[in-house]
Amino acid sequence: MPPNYPLVSIIITCFNYELFISECIKSALQQDYPNLEIIVVDDGSKDGSWDIIQQYRDQVTCVRQQNRGALRSSLTGFRLSNGDFVHFLDADDLLVPGALQQIAPHLRPDVSKVQFMLSPIDRDGQVIGDPFPKLAQSIESGPLIQSINQRGYYNTPPTSGNIYRRDIYENLGDLSYERAIDGVPYLLAPFLGKVVSLDVPLGKYRIHNANLSSFSTLSSDRLNGYIDRFMARLRHLAQLIDERGIKGKVRLRQDYAYVREMTILSTVASGKRPALRLLASYISAVRREHRALRTCMSLAFALGLFVLPNLGRRQLASFRLDPSRFWRVRSRLKHAASVGT
Fold it and tell me: Rounded to the nearest 5°, which phi and psi values hold at 327?
């Protein structure tokens, strides 16, 4: 095998996704990449997912386990994999044809992660918005480390939009606080090599009732859970950097704009009006971490959460957390602007 084609492991995890799993597996099998293994882990599905998965047993490695959650099923797939690079592909998402060939030139030993944009699609596979997140073509990790220290995160796609060098997932330690497979690895990757950002959509991210359920319930417990995981990932990152003797430090704070925003939304979810002091600290954090346009948008958002009645506040908060509505509105605004020019 040519040296520029390292082994790539695509790990697909599935729980009750009989409607989508076949299309997902096919999108992996149809990649014109010559050194590829595909592992599908069924996490105790109660629908027909496992029967569908077994139809591909001659082409992929099929594993079934008792339901243990997305994180543990992903770890099962990782333990079974041999790839120099690993790609965790959610069972309702897709890779576009030729995606791995476009990524192949970047799969080098000095690259810790390749990230690419995703096109949001609906249940039927129709595109419902612009590709996200907006990524600038880049092969540098310095700005990402700077963003982590400034904001606690950097601009990155959901799980299916990332391919990691294998060692990023080795010896991670305790992940009991986590629900997803790439919470701390995406933060760790810039410290262990170059992160390549591709400004093209090479995958499709499906928005449907099943995954929107996580956004549909505005609850204080859920939002506080977001804050807890956000901070736990940063503490875990600092621990890994220290344990591995990696050059660089993480400056932990308690006043990240994300933490302030989730605190505000938690207050709204509990039926209360956010205090002016909390809103002011949120705007101050946004000004420190982001550009002027984001500050203006956040100011309007905070003002709405303060002046609106309880029902209006809850609707605004739910809109902020609902990705399908956000992408649709963003696309409509972009279309309206282009028509008017």
Answer: -65, -40
Residues 48, 164, single domain; the answer is yes
What is the arithmetic mean of pLDDT over 297-316?
89
Total structural domains within the chain: 2
Q: What is the pLDDT of residue 294?
A: 78
Structure tokens at 187: 């933060």
Tokens 């994180």 found at: 71
C-alpha to C-alpha distance for 123 and 3, rounded to whole angstroms: 39
pTM here? 0.90
* 57 shares a domain with 169: yes
Q: Give a yes or no: residue 334 inside a domain.
A: no
In this prediction, residues 43-51 reach a mean pLDDT of 97
Residue 338 pLDDT: 41
What does the DSSP 8-state code read for residue 105? G
- Tokens in use for 287? 């000004």
d(CA 58, CA 307): 60
Q: What range does the domain containing 28 cover? A: 8-206
Is the pLDDT confidence value at 335 over 60?
A: no
Helix, coil or strand: residue 212: helix
Q: Say yes or no: 175 and 266 in one domain.
A: no
Predicted pLDDT at 24: 98
Whether residue 191 is contained in a domain is answered as: yes
Residues 229 and 199 in one domain: no
- Mean pLDDT of the 120-127 span: 93
> Would residue 28 count as lying in a domain?
yes
Phi-psi map region of 271: left, alpha, beta (phi>0 left; psi -120 to 50 alpha) = left
Strands, sheet with 85-90, edge to edge from the N-terminal-most edge strand: 61-65, 36-43, 8-14, 85-90, 162-165, 111-121, 194-206, 94-95
What CA–CA distances, in Å, run from 9 to 37, 104, 164, 264? 5, 13, 10, 40
